[in-house]
Amino acid sequence: MFKAVCACCPPNLARVISSFGKYAYGENEDTVFCHLYAGGKVAFENGVKLLCKTEYPYGFDVVYTILEGRGKIAVRIPQWSKNSILTVNDEIVDCNAIKGYIYLKVNAGDIVKLTLDDTPYYVYPSAKIPELTGSVAICRGPLVYCFEGVDNGNDILSLSIKRKGKLFVGDADAQLKGAVKITAEAVRTEVSAELYTTSVPVETPCTAVAIPYYTWCNRGENQMRVWMTEAK
Known about the structure:
Blueprint: H1 9-18, H2 20-24, E1 25-27, E2 31-34, E3 40-43, E4 49-54, E5 61-68, E6 70-76, E7 85-88, E8 91-93, E9 101-107, E10 111-115, E11 121-123, E12 135-140, E13 143-148, E14 159-162, E15 167-173, E16 179-189, E17 203-212, E18 224-225, E19 228-231
């Protein structure tokens, strides 16, 4: 007898979407917690209502307008945001986080604005991961980036990222539905005809283009890497 089957992914996705509000926000008697940055109106049982506006993760401004109620708001500061700016009604407040959160007293009509650090940064693996020895990855905000062949001469296996090289943030790319590319200083190693050789590899300075990991493989099949060899 034929039995219909369903993979776990569709119902899990539906479950996550329907419960997203509980991941993004929380509350107790006098404090509302903003765990994630999600646009929209939120009404809490403690009487506070707020409106969040943001283009996150491509825009790094998060604005909370307190529509009703009073109490405290706890805004999360992610670990990757090394330089954050927080204002209440255009006045800068200290960003001294307590276990990752900034606590503020607010009233109806107050506007809380959080500006996160949009600087791209390098991530290095632990020496306990032998497969990634001498590698480096690139992130910007919460997004992990990857290098795809279509942006790099259809060959990323010969590319290495320059140690402490500069990273340049590009404009939104329409072909990638608004995703932002990052260009890194790199080195390309000349491919030898033999698999093994006693000759020192010839290296040429160049640049390498990275895209958000979730956007890869949307422009045809080609090479892709997240962890790149680091050129010293």
